[in-house]
Write a structure and sequence with these properties.
Keywords: Membrane, Transmembrane, Transmembrane helix. InterPro entries: CarS (IPR032690). This is CDP-archaeol synthase. The protein has seven helices and no strands. Helix 3 runs parallel beside helix 7. The chain is about 65% helix and about 0% strand. It has about 190 residues and is mainly alpha-helical.
């Protein structure tokens, strides 16, 4: 019990200098979130962002033309990169629309949620290309925050999600997505 108390209370004395402070505060805030809402939103985010990956795995190179049509900007890099396809965008929007009613959302809300997830993904791809990073490169944070932040902001007004709760959901998604990205890469290195 003494070790547990030290683990829980010690971060409070070190303030922002100890990473445990952030974790402690996130867990404290997470206690205020309806667990059903948290799980529903995490699953919806995973569906929206996982649908393009699963579709690419199942269809291989079929219908895999790049969304940007291989357009290169003046910096010599693609607009988004070869891994962003019309097939992936369509898979995310359609799959999320079909799954959304299971979580109490309409087909339209699900489709828009999927759209905003892909808009966030395209923003991160655009930024990565400007940083000269190759298509498919994983950048923790940049690869996880926009694709969750955009759709959560879309749902924020409908569900009255407070900003601190949105931040907790965002962090939970980023950590879960990082873990699944690592696991997927270990199981299927070719599709990383």
């Amino acid at each position: 019990m003494q070790n547990y108390m030290k683990l829980v209370l010690e971060p409070l004395f070190f303030g922002g200098k100890d990473p445990r402070t952030i974790i402690f505060l996130v867990l404290l805030e997470a206690g205020k979130i309806n667990p059903v809402d948290l799980i529903s939103l995490l699953l919806l985010l995973m569906v929206a962002n996982g649908a393009p990956v699963v579709t690419a795995f199942l269809l291989k190179d079929r219908f895999s033309g790049p969304l940007d049509g291989s357009l290169r900007l003046s910096d010599g890099h693609p607009l988004f990169g070869s891994s962003k396809t019309i097939r992936g965008i369509a898979a995310a929007i359609l799959t999320t629309a079909l799954i959304a009613p299971l979580f109490g959302f309409s087909l339209t809300t699900g489709a828009l949620f999927g759209f905003w997830a892909m808009a966030g993904d395209l923003v991160s791809s655009f930024i990565k290309r400007r940083l000269s990073l190759p298509s498919g490169a994983n950048v923790p944070g940049l690869d996880h925050i926009p694709e969750a932040f955009f759709p959560l902001c879309f749902l924020r007004s409908q569900m009255a999600i407070p900003w601190p709760n949105l931040a907790v959901i965002l962090l939970a998604f980023a950590l879960l997505d990082l873990f699944l990205w690592y696991l997927w890469g270990r199981l299927y290195p070719r599709f990383r």
